[in-house]
C-alpha cells in the first residue's frame, strides 16, 4: 500500500505538522511507502525535503483540484487528510471540499477539531468530508460522540485512535542536570505560544506557589506561533515578559524562546516535575503537548478542556477551572507537598501511555488502511458474494406466524407498524426462487406463509389491502395500487417456478381472481409490477390455458398504458413516463422489456431501451463510476436538481433486474456489467462509500442518508436485496 498524507509538515512549526511527521515516521518503519503533500501558508513559506512531494498553496483554490487529479492517477492507494479548519482557505477552510470532491482514491480524514457548537457552514464541511471519506479518525471519545450527536454521523463511520506520543525513558535527575536545573522543582509548559494558551494565568500563580516551593522554576519553552508572529508580532510574548517583571519573577519564570527538536524536548519533559496546559478553549479536543507529557509519564495540571478532561480523568492528573491562578497555585503546592500523590499521578498516567506509543498508534492506522483496501474492489467482493449460497437468516428473523414484519428499530422488529402486503409479496418472490434451487421444508414453509398472507390481504373482488396492524386489522380500504401489482408479480413468478400441481392450484386461483381488476389500474408502477407477473405467468403456461391468452392481452394493454404515458411526457431531453422521477423507477423499462419478449413488439423494446438509458443517466455518476440513485427526499422533478438522499435499496434492486432483462431482450451479456455495477451499490460503491449490506446481521440498511446509512434494517430492504442477489445468481448460472 502507498499512503499520501495531506497536512502541514515540518519544518513548518505547528502541532499538526509535528503530529504528521511522527505518525509518518512510524508508518515508514513498517516498510510502507508514503508521501506528504504539505499545506503551504503564504505568510510562512518553507523549503521541504522528502517525503514531501508536492505542496498545496492554502489560498490557491486551483491547487486543491489539481493535486486531487494528480493523486487520482498516481500510485497512491489511500489519501489521509489531517483536518483543522485553519489549515485551508475559503470560509471556514471550505476549499478542502474541492479537493475531497475531486478525489477518487479512498480518503481518510483525521479531525483535529470537532466543535460542540459549529456554524452551519462548519457543520456542513465536517459532514461532507465524512461523507466523502471511507472513515474518519478522532483522538477523543467526546469528539466521536459529537460527530454522532451534533453532526449526525453514524458511529460506525468514525474510529477512535489515541494521539501518539514518544515514550520518554530518561531519568529525571539526569535530565535536570542536562538542562542545568538539578536542584529545582520544575514546572514545564511547552507550546507554540499564542493567546489561547493561557500562560499569563500560570505566571500569576507563581508568586503564591513560590512561597511554599522556594526552588520552583517555571520553564516556558517554545517560540511564538509563526502565524501569530506574522499577524501580531511578539506582542503576546512581550505582555508575558512584562508580567514577569511586574511580579518580580525573573528568577522563577524562564523563557526558552525557540522551537526545540524532539530529542531536546524529550529531555525537558523528563526533567519536569509537573507539566501544565492552562488553555483557554473549553472545546479543545486534542493537545499534542499534553499527549507528549503523558508519554513522558508526567504529573499534569490542566484546565478543563475536553481533551484534558478525558485523558486526565480517573486520577491521571489535576484538573482546574479556566483563568484561575489561585487554583493553579493550589494544585501545584499540593503536588509539591504530597510526593505520594505526585507519584500516584505519574503511575496512573503511565498506564495510559502504553497505548499512546507512536508504534502502537501506527499499527492501528495500518489496520484501518488495510481494512479500507480490502473493501476497495467491490467487483471482486460482489463476485465472491454471489458465488456463495444466499443467507436468508435475517429474512427469517423478521418473519413470524403472520408474515414478514414491515419495520425495525435498528435490527429489532418493530411490531407496532405491523405488516405490509408489498413486503410479503416480494418475500414470496425470494423464497420461490430459493425453493427452485433448494427444495427444503424450511423454504416451503415460508412460501406457504407468504401466500397465506396474500390470500388474507385479498378481497373476493380481487383488490388488495396494504397494511395489516399488529392487532390483526387492516388499516386501509382495498384498492388496485402497488400491493395489487406486487402480489400479481409474486404470484406469477411463483407459478412460473412451481412444479407442485397441488400447491399451484391455490396460487393459480389467487392469480386468476385478480385479473378482473387489471382494467382498474391507474398507476404506472402498479401496471409495471402487474406486467412482470403476467410475463412470468405467460412464460409458464403460454397457450396452454385460456387464462394465458387473456394474460397476453392484458400485458399488451398495460404496455400500451405505459407507452401512452411516455408519449405524453417525453421530450428531447426528458425520455421518461412522468414529469417527476420518483421511486422504483427501473421497473418501468423492465416491464416494457418483458412485454417485448412476449409480444415481439419493437416499439416496446425501443421505448424500454431509451427510458432505461435516460434513467441510467439520472442515476449514474460517470466520474466516480458508481450508481447515485435518486433520493426519496424530494425525488427528481423535471427542470430541478435531483434529490441526493434518501437513496433506497429498492432502486438498486430494480436496476439490477432491468439490466438483466435488457441483456435478455438484446441477447447481449454486456448489460450484465451494468447489473453488477448496480449491485455494487450495496457493497460500498456509492456516494457515501458505505456498505448498505450488513455483514454482521445479514440484513440491509434502510437507505443512504446524509448521515451515512439509515441504521434501521427493515423488510423492504432485505427482500429487495435478496431478489437482486437471486436474479444475478440465476443469470450467471445460465451463462
Characteristic key phrases:
glycosyltransferase activity, 6-stranded parallel beta sheet, Rossmann fold, elongated, 6-hairpin_glycosidase_sf, Glycosyltransferase, transferase, 7-stranded parallel beta sheet, alpha/beta, 735 residues
Would you spell out the secondary-structure blueprint of this structure?
Layout: E1 3-7, H1 15-29, E2 34-40, E3 52-57, H2 61-72, E4 78-83, H3 95-102, E5 107-111, H4 120-132, E6 135-138, H5 141-149, E7 158-160, H6 172-178, E8 185-190, H7 199-212, E9 216-221, H8 226-232, H9 235-246, E10 253-256, H10 262-271, E11 274-277, H11 288-295, E12 299-303, H12 306-311, E13 318-320, H13 325-337, H14 339-353, H15 358-374, H16 378-386, H17 393-398, E14 408-409, E15 412-413, E16 419-420, H18 421-437, H19 441-457, E17 467-468, H20 482-497, H21 501-514, H22 524-541, H23 546-569, E18 580-581, H24 587-599, H25 602-619, E19 620-621, E20 626-627, E21 636-637, H26 649-666, H27 670-679, E22 704-705, E23 708-709, H28 715-734
Parallel strand pairs: 1-2, 1-4, 2-3, 4-5, 5-6, 6-7, 8-9, 8-11, 9-10, 11-12, 12-13
Antiparallel strand pairs: 14-15, 16-17, 18-21, 19-20, 22-23
Helix pairs in contact: 1-15, 2-3, 6-10, 7-13, 13-14, 18-19, 18-20, 18-28, 20-21, 20-22, 22-23, 22-24, 23-24, 24-25, 24-26, 25-26, 26-27, 26-28
Quick structural gist:
By secondary structure, the protein is of the alpha/beta class. It folds into 3 domains: 3-161 and 362-374, Rossmann fold; 172-356, Glycogen Phosphorylase B (Rossmann fold); 378-734, Glycosyltransferase (Alpha/alpha barrel), CATH 1.50.10.
Amino acid at each position: 500500500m502507498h499512503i499520501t498524507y495531506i497536512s502541514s509538515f515540518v519544518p513548518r512549526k505547528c502541532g499538526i505538522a509535528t503530529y504528521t511527521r511522527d505518525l509518518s515516521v512510524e508508518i515508514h518503519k513498517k516498510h510502507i511507502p508514503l508521501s506528504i503533500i504539505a499545506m503551504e501558508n503564504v505568510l510562512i513559506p518553507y523549503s521541504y525535503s522528502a517525503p514531501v512531494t508536492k505542496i498545496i498553496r492554502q489560498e490557491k483554490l486551483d491547487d486543491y483540484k489539481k493535486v486531487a487529479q494528480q493523486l487520482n492517477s498516481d500510485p497512491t492507494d489511500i489519501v489521509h487528510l489531517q483536518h483543522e479548519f485553519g489549515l485551508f482557505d475559503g470560509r471556514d477552510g471550505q476549499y478542502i471540499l474541492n479537493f475531497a470532491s475531486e478525489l477518487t482514491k479512498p480518503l481518510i480524514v483525521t479531525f483535529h477539531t470537532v466543535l460542540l457548537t459549529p456554524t452551519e457552514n462548519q457543520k456542513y464541511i465536517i459532514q461532507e468530508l465524512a461523507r466523502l471519506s471511507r472513515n474518519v479518525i478522532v483522538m477523543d471519545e467526546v469528539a466521536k460522540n459529537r460527530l454522532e450527536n451534533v453532526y449526525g454521523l453514524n458511529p460506525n463511520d468514525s474510529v477512535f485512535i489515541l494521539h501518539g506520543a514518544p515514550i520518554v525513558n530518561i531519568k529525571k535527575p539526569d535530565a535536570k542536570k542536562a538542562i542545568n536545573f538539578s536542584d529545582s522543582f520544575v514546572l514545564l509548559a511547552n507550546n507554540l505560544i499564542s493567546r489561547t494558551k493561557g500562560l499569563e494565568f500560570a505566571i500569576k500563580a507563581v508568586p503564591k506557589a513560590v512561597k511554599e516551593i522556594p526552588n520552583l522554576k517555571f520553564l516556558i519553552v517554545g517560540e511564538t506561533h509563526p502565524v501569530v508572529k506574522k499577524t501580531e508580532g511578539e506582542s503576546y510574548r512581550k505582555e508575558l515578559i512584562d508580567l514577569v517583571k511586574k511580579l518580580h519573577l525573573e528568577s522563577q519564570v524562564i523563557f526558552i524562546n525557540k522551537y526545540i527538536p524532539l530529542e531536546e524536548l524529550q529531555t525537558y519533559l523528563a526533567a519536569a516535575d509537573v507539566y501544565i496546559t492552562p488553555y483557554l478553549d473549553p472545546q479543545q479536543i486534542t493537545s499534542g503537548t499534553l499527549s507528549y507529557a503523558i508519554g513522558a509519564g508526567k504529573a499534569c495540571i490542566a484546565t478543563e478542556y475536553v481533551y484534558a478532561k478525558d485523558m486526565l480523568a480517573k486520577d491521571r492528573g489535576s484538573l482546574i477551572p479556566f483563568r484561575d491562578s489561585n487554583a493553579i497555585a493550589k494544585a501545584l503546592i499540593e503536588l509539591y507537598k504530597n510526593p505520594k500523590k505526585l507519584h500516584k499521578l505519574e503511575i496512573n498516567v503511565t498506564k495510559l501511555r502504553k497505548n499512546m506509543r507512536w508504534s502502537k498508534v501506527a499499527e492501528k492506522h495500518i489496520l484501518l488502511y488495510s481494512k479500507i483496501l480490502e473493501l476497495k474492489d467491490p467487483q471482486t467482493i460482489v463476485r465472491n458474494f454471489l458465488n456463495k449460497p444466499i443467507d436468508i437468516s435475517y429474512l427469517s428473523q423478521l418473519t413470524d406466524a403472520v408474515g414478514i414484519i414491515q419495520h425495525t428499530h435498528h435490527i429489532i422488529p418493530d411490531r407496532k407498524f405491523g405488516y405490509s402486503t408489498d413486503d410479503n409479496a416480494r418475500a414470496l418472490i425470494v423464497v420461490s426462487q430459493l425453493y427452485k434451487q433448494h427444495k427444503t421444508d424450511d423454504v416451503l414453509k415460508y412460501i406457504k406463509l407468504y401466500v397465506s398472507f396474500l390470500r388474507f390481504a385479498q378481497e373476493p373482488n380481487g383488490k388488495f389491502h396494504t397494511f395489516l396492524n399488529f392487532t390483526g386489522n387492516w388499516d386501509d380500504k382495498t384498492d388496485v395500487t402497488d400491493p395489487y401489482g406486487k402480489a400479481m408479480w409474486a404470484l406469477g413468478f411463483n407459478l412460473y417456478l412451481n412444479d407442485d400441481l397441488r400447491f399451484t392450484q391455490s396460487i393459480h386461483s389467487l392469480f386468476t381472481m385478480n385479473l378482473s381488476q387489471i382494467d382498474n389500474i391507474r398507476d404506472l408502477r402498479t401496471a409495471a409490477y402487474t406486467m412482470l407477473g403476467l410475463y412470468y405467468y405467460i412464460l409458464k403456461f403460454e397457450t396452454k390455458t385460456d387464462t394465458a391468452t387473456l394474460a397476453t392481452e392484458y400485458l399488451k394493454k398495460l404496455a400500451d398504458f405505459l407507452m401512452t404515458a411516455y408519449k405524453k411526457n417525453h421530450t428531447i431531453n426528458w425520455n421518461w413516463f412522468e414529469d417527476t422521477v420518483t421511486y422504483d423507477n427501473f421497473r418501468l423499462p423492465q416491464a416494457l422489456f418483458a412485454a417485448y419478449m412476449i409480444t415481439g413488439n419493437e416499439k416496446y423494446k425501443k421505448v424500454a431501451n431509451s427510458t432505461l438509458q435516460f434513467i441510467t443517466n439520472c442515476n449514474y455518476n460517470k466520474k466516480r463510476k458508481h450508481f447515485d440513485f435518486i433520493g426519496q427526499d424530494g425525488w427528481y422533478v423535471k427542470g430541478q436538481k435531483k434529490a441526493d438522499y434518501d437513496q433506497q435499496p429498492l432502486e438498486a434492486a430494480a436496476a439490477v433486474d432491468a439490466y438483466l432483462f435488457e441483456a435478455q431482450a438484446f441477447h447481449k451479456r454486456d448489460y450484465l456489467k451494468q447489473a453488477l455495477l448496480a449491485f455494487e451499490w450495496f457493497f460500498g460503491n456509492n456516494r457515501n462509500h458505505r456498505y448498505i449490506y450488513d455483514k454482521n446481521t445479514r440484513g440491509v440498511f434502510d437507505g443512504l442518508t446524509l448521515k451515512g446509512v439509515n441504521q434501521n434494517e427493515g423488510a423492504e430492504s432485505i427482500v429487495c436485496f435478496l431478489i437482486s442477489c437471486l436474479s444475478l445468481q440465476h443469470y450467471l448460472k445460465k451463462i
